[in-house]
Amino acid sequence: MNQDGPAELVIRAESLHADVVADPGSVGPAATTLVAEARRHAVAREALVVALRAQAVYERSRMAHDGAKRLLDEAVRLARAAGLPERLHEVLVSRAVVQLERGRFGAAARDLDAAERAGPGGDPELELQRASVLYNVGRLREAARVCRRILADSRTSRETEAKVTNNLALLEAQLARPDTALELLDRAEALAGPALGALVACSRGWVLARAGLLAESLRQFDRAERRYREVGLAPAELYLEQLDTLLDLRLTAEARALAERAGAALREGGVGLMGAEALLRLAQVAARSRDPESALGPAAAAAAEFRAQRRPGWVARAEITRIAVLLESGRAGPAELSAARRAVRELERGSQRSSVVDAHLVAGRVALALGRKRAAVDHLVAARDGARRGAVLVRLQGRVAGAHAAAAVGDDGGVVRHARAGLTDLGRHRDTLGSTELRALATGHGAELGRLGLGALLRSASPADVLAWLERTRAAALLTSAPPSGEAIAPHQAALAAVQAELARLRREGEPEPMALLAEQSELESRVRRAAWRVPGGHPSRSTPVGVPEVRRLLGGRPLVGYGTDGERVFAVVLEARRTRLVHLGDPREIQIETEALGSALRRLCRPARGRTAHVAARAAAQHTLHRLRAVLVTPLGVDPRDPLVVIPDPVTRDVPWSALHPGPTAVAPSMSLWARTARSGPAGGSTVLVVGPGLPGADAEVRALAAEHPAAGVLVPPSATVGAVAEALGGADLVHLACHGLLRTDNPIFSALRLADGDLTLHQLDDRGRTAAGRPRRLPVRGGRPGRG
After folding, report:
1. C-alpha distances out from residue 533 to 6, 205, 336, Å
2. Is the pLDDT of residue 1 over 60?
3. CB under 8 Å to 621, separation ≥6 — which residues?
4. Which domain holds residue 762?
5. DSSP letter for each residue of 583-618
6. β-sheet bridge partners, residue 689
7. For residue 55, what are the CA distances in angstroms to 25, 522, 779?
8. How far is 531 from 524, CA to CA, in rounded Å?
9. How far is it, in rounded angstroms, from Cα 414 to Cα 420?
10. Are residues 32 and 93 in the same domain?
11. Which end of the chain is more exposed for a tag (fewer CB within 10 A), N or C?
12. How far is 164 from 167, CA to CA, in rounded Å?
């Protein structure tokens, strides 16, 4: 049994406190034992105070702030009763930290004042907490000044210096100086112990996101999570900091799950400060979802909590989120404009660039919707100018604001300049991402700029310029090249291939697919996908959209029709041998309704044993909708029905069966650039490959007929038409014909697949094997059905 006296217990408690601060996961549980030992010594009051403080540090590391507060309350009472002013000072500062993180700003300020009276004036640790209060209420420049003063104080300990340097880095990032922030984090990491080093790693992930380096941010958060686990820190704060990166990557579902997970953990532990921030993040995620109205509840709840915490800057952010949702639904009125302008003024006091830009943009849009042009232009110009030195996504917001401001004063040329510059910036940003999925999602950041530029060109430019703009906005994401996925993904891919092979075997043998195996497949898909997100971008894309003159040359007199939608109308640009025409067509909602009706009728026709009456009715319905679509989309174009036609649809017309609307030969491509690639001669030595998949009636006969026309073609049929063999054949082929079933995955599009003899060849695998446009087949027609889940 330990026989230490009071003095020895104090020494042990001080040592334990330092160890718990450095590595709470390993050392923290020992604090409970030392507290119990100190309680048995009636005269060991000082040791008990220090031990209680150490145990509180451990509880705080686990996000158990309510428990930490109770321990520190006892330590404060003991220190006061025993007349221990220095210990009282230390414990009051520790309790102020916990109170601050619980969202009790008034209580934290009272503890700091009491600590200052009990201990030495100007204590760096106490001043650090005062800076934290300023930071969390949004007074960033004042907080930065306090941090710099602490760093200049010779009394500042190594541990406090590391904390202050980390906090100053976060402030510099919010003040749009990410390079300075990263240099400060290098210094903080050199000073930090294991636990604080994990927090610094988390800060680095957040700063990298603010710098626009999103894939690198994800990789850094992975490293931070490993360090969190090593030292036993609760991950809720880490999850919260990752949310901005996920939102910037437009990974909405993942961001929502993380926000809910972080929020639940923070509420359970009584961490009100970050709990309110988690609510706001949840609102921001919901605002970008398919149901933006669901953001209103969390935004209002977050605003209420921020008001209770006396954090006006954060109230302003929550208000901007709420107003943006109301604006989207057409319900923003004069009251919302007044609220947005108040939020702008509050956020400008804090000087956080991205929030100020966002607030000005929302205020400007509300003013535009209300017809308040002068106020709108003032806010939009402020957003445009404020975004100039920000990260790429902040600059994009500035370009959107600039385009709206130009449109408000009738400057169509200015609209196009801002839209073009923003899309150029977005292209560079897309090049930093190694995942095709993330590149496709990033394109969404430019959707509004694309619409604004298109509207301006439709008002003031030639049809050829309109067609070129449509091509620019469509082809950009399709023409980017990405690097190979690398070794990090290979093990997950191999495991996934094994599971898919087993599922294919069960299907061949007519056995049901076990739920456990499907769940394993889903988990492995998630791992592959997440690993791909972290792949760094490769070289900048060398592919550029093809120009209208080159397309006209390749057409050889054939017409090409590019469809687009602007507001309430679908239009078509008809590119012919000697002229380019703009034709205004119908209502996009009508076209979508007719397309869906046609799909329903065709599905009814495919159902066996429905009876003659049902068959006749379905055929009549299909013919009626075809006639309606032809009348709206093709007849007004004035093209000869016998002419070969190239069609470039937009999202509204993407599912239209064009060959059924135009009697002549019809080619459909996602962009002019990709069509032009098929029209040019293929790569030297390119081969032809014909593939038959399992379970598709008529596929063998179809491929035999094609093989007669292409006697040198390589033919792959089951059981030789395996995933590996087909993927290998695609790599060097010029022309490929695939007669197999497809699996359309709306839940996880990158794993949409072609069903082959031994499993599924996914879009992810196709992309990974032929990452550049030049490495893919020039033509790749697919004929087959759509089994499986959607």
Report:
1. 56, 14, 38
2. no
3. 597, 600, 601, 604
4. 679-783
5. EE---HHHHHHHHHHHHHHHHHHHSTT--HHHHHHH
6. 714, 736
7. 12, 42, 67
8. 11
9. 10
10. yes
11. N
12. 5
Q: What is the pLDDT of residues 287-340, one digit of tens each?
A: 998 899 999 999 999 999 999 999 999 999 999 999 999 999 999 999 999 999
355 shares its domain with 448: yes
DSSP H helices, 232-293, are 236-248, 252-269, 272-287
CB 404 within 8 A of CB 380: yes
pLDDT at residue 19 in the model: 93
Are 622 and 751 members of one domain? no
SS3 helix, strand, coil % of the chain, rounded to 5? 65, 5, 25
494 falls within a domain: no
Nearest of 483, 539, 477 to residue 771 by alpha carbon: 483
pTM (2 d.p.): 0.86
Name, in order, each residue with C-beta under 8 angstroms of 479's C-beta and a sequence gap of 6 or more: 541, 543, 544, 545, 673, 674, 773
The structure tokens 């619980």 sit at 102
What is the spatial order of strands in the sheet that 560-566 belongs to? Answer: 580-584, 569-575, 560-566, 645-648, 666-668
CATH code, domain carrying 413: 1.25.40.10
Domain count across the chain: 4
Q: Which of 121, 146, 179 is the last residue of a domain?
A: 121
- In 3-state terms, what secondary structure has residue 758? coil
Task: Examine the fold and report which residue of 446, 479, 512 is the final residue of a domain before the chain moves on.
Answer: 479
Q: Is residue 774 part of a domain?
A: yes
Q: For the chain, report the end-to-end CA distance as a whole number of angstroms.
A: 67
Token reading at 487: 């070794």
Residue of 702, 684, 682 whose CA lies nearest to 692: 702
